[in-house]
What we know:
The chain is α+β, with helices and mostly antiparallel strands. 22% of the residues lie in helices and 30% in strands. It has a single domain (22-160), classed as Pnp Oxidase, Chain A. The chain has helices spanning 22-28, 71-78, 112-129, 134-138; strands spanning 33-39, 45-56, 60-66, 83-88, 95-100, 104-107, 148-153, 157-160. An 8-stranded antiparallel beta sheet has the order 6-7-3-2-1-4-5-8. Residues 3-14 have low confidence and may be disordered. This is Pyridoxamine 5'-phosphate oxidase putative domain-containing protein.
Amino acid sequence: MPSGSSIPSANALQEGPATVPADLIALAQSGVGIAVASCDANGRPVLGLGVGCRINGQRLFRILLDRRANTQLIEAILGGSAVAATMTSARDHTSFQVKAPQARIAYARPDDLPELDRQQALLCEGLVELGYTAEQAASYAPYADADLVAVEFVPAKVFIQTPGPGAGKEIER
């Protein structure tokens, strides 16, 4: 199993874990575009593309991504760097970001695949509504089942990122 920094318990986080509102949890699991960021050992930013998100309660985020397409991001996370993930709806640009001081890499689980298929279908539908062809939409976030891994973390902060007034505002605990 992939290894990395362990996920901090609620007591280990300096400010405690953030509570993510239910509407944002639903959004994150509704077929959104997912950007995942960290920094490499030299402090340079590294960006990856998630293909799905699963959330256990309001705490544990599992961002699924293709291992081969995101090697630099995975290396940065395994090196102990902080992580940020931004989820954006293709249909209306509703967006939010979660940040965590550390994360771990885990294998995808068999029960991830049907949920990932559902989320990818919704993402593709949203992109087609915007004018993408079905082929373009299907190639937006490609992955191979055998190469899926999960970035797991407990968010310490949550921010609204929907364009307009209030973008970048932290959601109060």
